[in-house]
Structures are given as structure tokens and as C-alpha cells.
Design a protein that fits this description.
The complex is a heterodimer of chains A (118) and B (875). Chain A is α+β, with helices and mostly antiparallel strands and 118 residues long. Chain A has a single domain, classed as Arc Repressor Mutant, subunit A. Helices cover 53% and strands 14% of the residues of chain A. In chain A, strands 1-3-2 form a three-stranded antiparallel beta sheet. Helix content of chain B is 52%, strand content 16%. In chain B, helix 5 crosses helix 14 and helix 16 runs antiparallel to helix 23. Chain B is extended. The chains are: A alpha+beta (118), B alpha+beta (875). Chains A and B meet through helix 2, helix 3 and strand 3 of A and helix 1 and helix 3 of B.
Chain lengths: 118, 875
């Protein structure tokens, strides 16, 4: 993907995109564009999801049964595909969230030994 | 579930629309909003492809990757054409041999018979080892005993053959072997008609009309599957019979006949001898197991009843004959003689396959040593272990599939040859066809080979990267190298033995084909003119032959005509051997009464065939006429044996009649040279000749032609038909033709053996090439250093070539020693085996050395073309 050096941004950690998508959809059905915007807004513009990664990821999650989709008319007055969390998707989100907090905790201990001792 | 292309496009379009709307709301112009939305989105096509890719099944990706690998493999193999061709041909030989032999094994040993419930069908055989009679067959009283006492057999089928002269169905009068069966035969055999009906119990009644069933082969081949054949009448000598049906295709056992008749058709079968004589055995016996009875139970009952019969009729079963009974499933009976041969062939083919694979593996290994650099680079660029393995697998798949395709192409003609060979042991090989099982075997073997070959090469280890210098190379330990050389040497030794054997066979064949038989081979036409078949007998037979001789002699292009009773080689075994003795003869002490071959000949026979008269005179037209003295002519070895002093003429010779046991005197009027007319390898032959007229039997006509003998056949036939319209005139051939026909089995032997030897030679050569290629590849550095210190490329070529020929030479020595030992062992069992002449041995050795040298050329050239600078840099 093309990287713009002038743009402030961070690469997503590998494997976290799925979790972010699931998390974003917790508030309700949303289309791909909306999901991308939501992740960017939530991260104060730090995380920018490339569409080339976002859409295949959505389809992958749908294939696994964590999302389901339906067509509706978007605010741009055009056909758009809305994604929604399924029950198994919800379960998956909580699993990923646990895994993530364990990972953050573990990395924090390594990077910050002093604070971990508190 | 799975989105279509429209859905994917709509989804992307929706995204772009939203993105544009947002930008326009921020104040951008629509055109610039559109541009920046597209720019932000990136590559639309790529994204759409990855979205679509998510939904593809997983195997699709692997298949795609394999497809890529296969394209790559084909390209990389095209750069190594010599290697690829060698590997493909070697594998094709291995796969082809296995596929062909497996087809035959399946067809002969495993395929069920077409007969209904064929596993209930048994074949019963009476044999007398004491009389060296492997098949004594049964007489009608014996079968009657079985019928009345046996409970475990549901029904018996009787089959015998008899000779008829068949006239009708728009065919030339011919002598045919006809099957004669009882009414329950077809029911017991479980066979069905394809047309009309088969025979049943009604056809067994004494007053039943004579009826015949045609066999499928005769109906299709001779009558072009004529559907109107039912109801037509066939004349058998004096009587006639009606065609009632056509039998389905089935195994022609125990005899391949054209027609199968009911018992009343054959006058002989109704005669008193046939019905009442316990020793008049000519009937084969089949049985169908009664419901719920096992083969073992039936065998036990049959054996015990048979033992009772033996006790009740000691006169019919001399103790010295050791008469015994064998009971076997029909299918096993048919396959048994071929089983050992076929299983041996199958084992040999399997060994060939394994050897072919290991030779190919050596070649592949040598190649993988050479391309270790390439593999290491690919590993360094991120190709995983699996990906590398997949590359190799793709390559060996390409090679093995090509090998399998070629192998299956080779297998088709090979099946025909192996089947012809196997047909000597089992009739079931006659109707073999190549079916899809060849494909399955070929494909299976190819897969096995592919996987094997893909796992032979070592991959660059990710844990111990050899670096991009990649100079490590495979280090062959002296042990590996020696083992490989031994392996190649063993192959050379085996193919040496095979080649020498083939050479022997071919040499023997050439000797046989060019041997001087002492007979006029080219100009003498022989024909079967069996007068007995038309019911002419006694003096009328002699008159018929004399008149035929007179008329044919006057035809243009005929130099001479003589009647005889025996076509050399073709009629071998058809005439009895009679014990003989003589007045005043000195029997050799301690020797049994000698037996002589009996031949009936007309005057002029000897001079026409070129048999020299040694003493006395030829027969004359008066010899053997009623009331005259009985005369004989003997062959030289009889004269020498009975009268060593050379005074055989006018002595009395006593011939013992086999049936009556009586001896009758014949005055010896002449002595002729020995001619061995039974064996293709001539041996001294004791033959007694009697005049045709004296016995009233002939059957064979010899015509000496001045031009092409075959062109006389229509005229001769016409003249004979004038005398007797229904007279069969058959199997016209020159003696040369007859001999070629008799030698055809030797030719087939030589052919099959040559095939094996050729395969062995090719594989052994590939073995040598593989070993050398491997050793050269692994010694690249050594050669580089040698070149650097001043060796010329020519010296390197010579060095590798000498290594190749050394392997071959050692292999030949080992083969010669092994072959000699083998010959010693085999000689104990097979008398006729001879040490091969010098020519086949030298020929085989030269061929092998040349082949090994040729095989060494490729690796040798490679050794001489090593790039010195590159080798030294990598050090």
C-alpha cells in the first residue's frame, strides 16, 4: 500500500484488525466505510485502516460466521452492504479482547519492569 | 452466502460514494472529491480480487500454487532435456512393464468366469502318473458310477471331442473338432445362449434329432453373426444335424471347438465300445456343487467313491498306473498352470520398477546437488520448507506423469505379447483385453514414484543456512559412493546374464531356421486330405488316393505327387510308435524293445522329398495290393541297429500292433536315410515306412511343384472334389511354412526374452549414468581444481568414461561368474541347457561396455566443462 510520509499514522499490529472490526460493530450495523471511519475516529486519527485490508477482512469474518450482512440504502443514497455482529461474533470479540489485554499486560511487563513490580 | 461480482462492485461503489459525499460536505469540489476518494481507496481491482479470494475454498489456493509450480517445473525441466527424457523413459519402462503384467495377471488369475455361480463349478480329472498320463479322462461306465453314487454334486457335465467332416453353412468341406456333450452340460456349466437355445435333457433321448450349438467365435468370425443361422442344417459325414442355438462367449475349455453337438450326432458315442468299455476313456467331466456343499466335502466324497471303483474293477486300473482323482474349481484349474509364471513375472516387474525408481532417484539426486544453490537462494528469499518441497514434488509429478503416459502407451502392445506368452499356460489369456485397470496401475505407480522422488533430495536446512556462497555441496562419504557403484554393478551383471541368454536364444533360433533338414522345403506343397473323414475306407481309400495321385500328376506345373500319412513337424505326436523286432537281429542287451515311428507312404515319396535311398528299392504300385506279401522300408538307424552288418534288405521285420498285441512280419525292401520329422532339432530317427495301399490309410498329399507351390492349391482342390465332392482339402502349406509355424513359439520366446533384456539393459545404463552423474556433481570442486592445476578437459572426460566402463566391466565379470554358477544349478534340472557360445557372450559384453560408455558421456562432458573460476571462488 502507498504510504504517505506526511500523514500521521500507525500501522496496525498484525491480527488486531479483526478485533477492531468486531469491536466497532458492537454498537450496531455499519457499512465498510463507516467501520473505517469509526476506527479512525475512535483512535483520534492514529489508526488508519487501508480499504485493501478492510474489505477482505470483512468478508473473511462473514465467511467465518462472526458477521452477517444485508443490503440497505446508505446516507449517500446508494446501495451499501451493512455488517452486523452475530452471536458467535460476540463470543469471538470477548475472546479477542481477553487475549489482547493479556498481551498488552505481558508486553508492558517486559517494557516496563519497574512499574510491573508495584 | 458467497457474493457475486455485482455485489462486490456495489460494495466498493457504495464505499466510494460515501467517501465522496463526506469530502464534498467538507467543501471539496465533486471532481476533486472523486479523485481523492479513488486515490484513498487504492487499487480497486486488487481489493476486489482479495475479497473474492476470501470466499474461494482453500484447496483452490493450493491447486493454484501447484499449477504455478508445475509450470515452473516444466520450464526448468525443459532446460534439462536429456535428464528429463532419461527419467521419463526409465519410469515408462517400469510403469509399462507393471501395468502390462498386472493386466494379464488380473485377466488370467483374478477375473471371474462368465459362467453362472462360477465358484460352484468344478472340474474333475482322472490322471495316471504311472503311465505319465496327466489327463486320463473318463469312460462312460466310470461316469455312470459317479452319477449313481455321488450326492455332493448337483449335476455332471460331460464333454468329449470327435472329428467330423463338416459340410454346409456355405463353407468349404472341412475337418472340424466338434464338442459332444450330454444334455445337462450347459446347465452344469451355467452358460446361456445368445441366440436360439442350448442343449437339454430332451436332446439325450435315444431317438432325439441330431442338433448342434455354434460357439460364439465361430458364429461371429466365420458366419459374420448371421441371425438366420438357427434351423440351418449341417452335414457331418453321412448324417446331418440342425443348428439350434449360439453359445455366449465363454472360455473354450477343455477344447476350442466350432460346434457343440448332442450325443446322438456322433455315431461313435452311441457305439458299444463307448457305452460299455470301462477303459475307453475320452470324456472330460465337470460338476456343479450341490447346494450347501463345500468343495472339500465334494472332493472327499468323489475321492472315496473313486477308491471304491478302483477296488471293484482292478482289471481296468493296473496298480502300476497309480490312477488318481483331482478335483478343482474350474477357474483355478484354468489358471493353475499360469500362476507360477505370472507371479514370477509380476515379481520381476515389481523389481524392475523399484530399480528403475532408484536409478531415477540417483539422477534426481545428482540434479538436486547441482541446484542446491538455487534452492538455497529461494529459501533465503522466503520460500518455506513446504514450498520448496512442493517445487520438487511438482517436478517429479511432471516427470512421473509423462512416464506413466508413455508407460501406458507401451503397455498396450506389451499386454498382447505377454498374453500370447501366457496363453501357452492358460486359455484364459486368449481373450484378454487392455482395460482401465492399466490406467489405474499406471497412475498409482506414477504417484508412488513421484512422492518417492520428491523426498529424495535434501533441502537446505533453515537452521544451518549455508549462506549465499552456497559452496558447501553434498559431501559423499566413500561408503555412499561404493554402495551406489555396487548397485549399478549388480544391474549390469543381471542385464549381462539376460543379454547372454537372449543371445543364446536368438543364435539357437537362427541355427534352427537355417538348419539343413534333408528335405525339399520350398517346392513341396503338403495338404490334409483325410479320406477317413468322408467315410471312405479300406481298399476304396487306397483307390481314391491312387486316382487322385494320377489326376493331379497330369496337372501343369506338377512334377510329382505322393500320398503320405504325416506332415513333418505339424503332425508330431499324431502317429503311434510301435515296438519292433527282427529275425536274426541282435537285440542290444539290457535294453527294452525299441519303438519305431510308423509312417505310411506311397511310391515316389522319398525321391520327391529328397530323402536318399541307401539300399534296396522304393515301394511300387503293386506293393500292398491284396494277397501280396507285406513289405516295409526302414530308416538307416533301424537298419544299423537291427543288422549292424548292413544286410537289412530282405530280412523280416516284426511290428507289434498296439491294440491286438500281435506281431506281423514285413519284408524289408529298402533302407532310406534318417529324417527327423518330429523335432525341430534333428535327432536320429528310427522310422518304419509301410505302403499306403497295404494299410488303407493316408490323409496327407505331397505335391512337388515346378513353380510357386501355393498357386497349385485351387487346381488340386478342384481335382479332388471331382472325385469326392465333400472331401476336405485343408491346411495347404510348403514344408518351409510348416517349419516356420512350428518355430513360432521359439520366436516368441526369443522375442519375450529380448524384450526383458532390452528393458534390463536400458535400466542398467540409466543406473550407470545416474551413479556417475551423482559422483560428478558432487565432485565439481575436485574437477575445478584438477583443471586449475593443468588437467585438460579431455583428460577429465577420459577419467569419467573410464569410471563408467570400469563399473560395466566389473558388472560383466560378476554377471559371468553368477551366470556360470546359475547354469550349474539349472543344469541339474534342465538337461538341454548349454553353455552359450562365444558369440553371444562377447556380443552382450560389447553391447554393455558401449552402452555404459555412452551413458557416461553426459556426466563426463559436464565434468570437463566445470567453470574453474567459479569453483575456486566458492572455495
Amino acid at each position: 500500500m502507498i504510504k504517505h510520509s506526511d500523514e500521521r499514522g500507525m500501522d496496525l499490529l498484525q491480527g488486531t484488525l479483526d478485533m477492531l472490526i468486531l469491536r466497532t460493530l458492537q454498537w450496531g450495523a455499519q457499512h465498510g466505510h463507516g467501520i473505517g471511519q469509526a476506527i479512525r475516529a475512535q483512535s483520534d486519527g492514529l489508526l488508519k485502516v487501508e480499504t485493501g485490508s478492510l474489505y477482505p477482512a470483512l468478508h473473511r469474518l462473514e465467511k467465518r460466521g462472526w458477521l452477517k450482512s444485508e443490503w440497505d440504502v446508505s446516507e449517500a443514497n446508494q446501495r451499501a452492504k451493512y455488517y452486523k455482529l452475530t452471536a458467535t461474533g460476540k463470543a469471538q470479540l470477548s475472546r479477542e479482547r481477553d487475549r489482547w489485554s493479556q498481551l498488552v499486560d505481558a508486553i508492558g511487563r517486559v517494557m516496563n519492569p519497574a512499574s510491573a513490580k508495584e | 452466502m458467497r457474493p457475486g461480482d455485482d455485489d462486490l462492485n456495489d460494495e466498493i461503489r457504495g464505499h466510494l460514494a460515501l467517501s465522496m459525499k463526506e469530502r464534498i460536505e467538507r467543501g471539496e469540489s465533486p471532481a476533486s472529491a472523486r479523485l481523492s476518494a479513488l486515490k484513498e481507496f487504492g487499487n480497486v481491482t486488487l481489493t476486489r480480487d482479495s475479497m473474492r479470494g476470501v470466499w474461494r475454498p482453500e484447496w483452490f489456493d493450493s491447486a493454484e500454487a501447484l499449477g504455478r509450480d508445475i509450470r515452473f517445473a516444466v520450464r526448468s525441466l525443459l532446460r534439462a532435456k536429456g535428464l528429463a527424457a532419461t527419467v521419463v523413459v526409465t519410469l515408462a519402462l517400469g510403469i509399462g512393464a507393471n501395468a502390462a503384467i498386472f493386466s494379464v495377471v488380473r485377466g488370467v488369475l483374478l477375473r471371474p468366469l462368465v459362467n453362472r455361480d462360477e465358484d460352484r463349478l468344478i472340474y474333475i480329472r482322472q490322471s495316471a502318473p504311472g503311465l505319465s498320463a496327466a489327463n486320463l479322462t473318463f469312460s462312460i461306465p466310470e461316469i455312470k458310477d459317479f452319477r449313481s453314487r455321488i450326492r455332493t454334486i448337483g449335476g455332471f457335465g460331460e464333454f468329449s471331442t470327435t472329428e467330423f467332416t463338416m459340410v454346409g453353412l456355405n463353407r468349404e468341406p472341412r475337418t472340424v473338432q466338434a464338442g459332444v456333450v450330454n444334455g445337462s452340460f450347459f446347465d452344469v456349466m451355467g452358460l446361456r445362449p445368445v441366440l436360439g437355445r442350448l442343449l437339454n435333457a430332451q436332446d439325450d433321448r435315444p431317438k432325439a434329432p441330431a442338433v448342434v450349438v455354434l460357439t460364439y467365435r465361430f458364429w461371429t468370425a466365420a458366419l459374420k453373426s448371421d441371425p438366420n443361422v438357427i434351423g440351418r442344417s449341417i452335414r457331418f459325414g453321412p448324417s446331418s444335424a440342425t443348428v439350434v442355438g449360439v453359445l455366449e462367449p465363454s472360455v473354450p475349455y477343455p477344447a476350442d471347438t466350432e460346434v457343440i453337438a448332442n450325443i446322438v450326432t456322433s455315431p461313435h458315442h452311441l457305439g458299444a465300445t463307448m457305452v460299455t468299455s470301462r477303459t475307453h476313456r475320452m470324456t472330460e467331466l465337470f460338476g456343479r456343487l450341490a447346494p450347501g456343499v463345500s468343495l472339500d466335502q465334494a472332493r472327499a466324497e468323489l475321492t472315496s467313491v473313486h477308491a471304491d471303483i478302483l477296488r471293484e474293477h482292478p482289471e481296468a486300473y493296473p496298480a502300476s498306473a497309480h490312477v488318481q482323482l483331482n478335483v478343482a474349481r474350474l477357474r483355478e484349474q484354468l489358471a493353475a498352470p499360469a500362476r507360477t509364471v505370472l507371479l514370477l513375472l509380476l515379481a520381476a516387474a515389481a523389481v524392475v520398477f523399484v530399480i528403475a525408481c532408484s536409478n531415477v532417484a540417483n539422477l534426481i539426486l545428482a540434479r538436486s546437488v547441482r541446484r542446491e544453490g538455487e534452492l538455497a537462494v529461494r529459501a533465503a528469499l522466503g520460500a518455506g520448507h513446504g514450498a520448496l518441497r512442493r517445487t520438487l514434488l511438482a517436478e517429479s509429478l511432471v516427470l512421473c506423469s509423462a512416464g506413466a503416459v508413455l508407460g501406458i502407451v507401451l503397455a498396450r502392445p506389451a499386454v498382447a505379447i505377454v498374453a500370447r506368452y501366457a496363453a501357452r499356460f492358460s486359455v484364459r489369456a486368449l481373450d484378454l483385453t487392455v482395460d482401465t485397470s492399466v490406467l489405474w496401475v499406471g497412475a498409482g505407480l506414477a504417484m508412488a514414484a513421484a512422492v518417492l522422488l520428491a523426498f529424495v533430495p535434501r533441502l537446505p536446512s533453515p537452521n544451518a543456512p549455508s549462506g549465499l556462497g552456497l559452496a558447501s555441496g553434498v559431501r559423499i562419504t566413500p561408503g555412499t559412493s561404493r554402495r551406489l557403484r555396487m548397485f549399478a554393478m549388480t544391474q549390469i551383471a543381471c542385464s549381462f546374464v539376460l543379454l547372454t541368454g537372449t543371445g543364446m536364444l536368438v543364435a539357437a533360433l537362427v541355427t534352427l531356421q537355417t538348419a539343413n533338414t534333408g528335405l525339399n522345403m520350398r517346392q513341396v506343397l503338403v495338404l490334409d486330405v483325410p479320406a477317413s473323414a468322408t467315410g471312405i475306407g479300406g481298399t476304396r481309400t487306397a483307390d481314391f488316393y491312387r486316382e487322385a495321385t494320377r489326376r493331379i500328376s497330369s496337372l501343369p506345373g506338377v512334377n510329382g505327387v505322393a500320398v503320405g500319412s504325416f506332415v513333418p513337424w505339424r503332425d508330431a505326436g499324431s502317429m503311434p510308435r510301435l515296438p519292433f523286432s527282427a529275425d536274426g537281429a541282435t537285440p542290444v542287451s539290457g535294453e527294452e524293445n525299441p519303438h519305431a515311428r510308423l509312417r505310411l507312404v506311397a511310391p515316389g515319396f522319398f525321391s520327391m522329398l529328397g530323402i536318399p535311398q541307401i539300399a534296396g528299392r522304393d515301394f511300387t504300385d503293386d506293393d500292398g495290393a491284396g494277397g501280396t506279401e507285406q513289405v516295409a522300408i526302414v530308416s538307416h538307424s533301424i537298419a544299423l541297429r537291427l543288422f549292424p552288418n548292413g544286410d537289412a534288405a530282405n530280412q523280416r521285420l516284426f511290428l507289434t500292433d498296439m491294440v491286438s498285441g500281435k506281431s506281423a512280419p514285413n519284408r524289408i525292401v529298402g533302407v532310406v536315410a534318417d529324417v527327423d520329422d518330429e523335432n525341430v532339432v534333428p535327432e536320429p530317427a528310427m522310422t518304419v515306412y509301410l505302403p499306403v495301399r497295404q494299410v488303407g490309410y493316408g490323409g496327407r498329399l505331397f505335391v512337388h511343384a515346378s513353380g510357386d507351390p501355393h498357386s497349385l492349391v485351387p487346381e488340386v482342390t478342384r481335382v479332388i472334389r471331382e472325385l469326392s465332392p465333400d472331401q476336405p482339402v485343408e491346411r495347404a502349406a510348403t514344408l518351409e511354412d510348416v517349419r516356420a509355424e512350428v518355430l513360432s513359439s521359439d520366436r516368441l520366446n526369443a522375442f519375450v526374452f529380448s524384450g526383458f533384456a532390452g528393458v534390463a539393459l536400458l535400466i542398467a545404463v540409466v543406473g550407470v549414468a545416474g551413479v556417475l552423474a551423482f559422483s560428478v556433481s558432487a565432485r565439481t570442486r575436485e574437477f575445478g581444481v584438477r583443471l586449475a592445476v593443468g588437467s585438460s578437459p579431455g583428460q577429465l572426460v577420459a577419467r569419467v568414461l573410464s569410471e563408467g566402463t570400469a563399473i560395466a566391466a566389473l558388472g560383466i565379470v560378476a554377471g559371468a561368474l553368477g551366470g556360470f554358477a546359475l547354469e550349474r544349478i539349472v543344469h541339474a534340472y534342465v538337461e538341454s541347457l548349454r553353455i552359450p557360445g562365444v558369440l553371444p557372450v562377447l556380443g552382450a559384453a560389447t553391447l554393455l561396455i558401449l552402452a555404459a560408455a555412452a551413458a557416461s558421456m553426459m556426466p563426463a562432458t559436464r565434468a570437463s566443462q566445470v567453470d574453474v573460476a567459479e569453483v575456486l571462488r566458492t572455495e
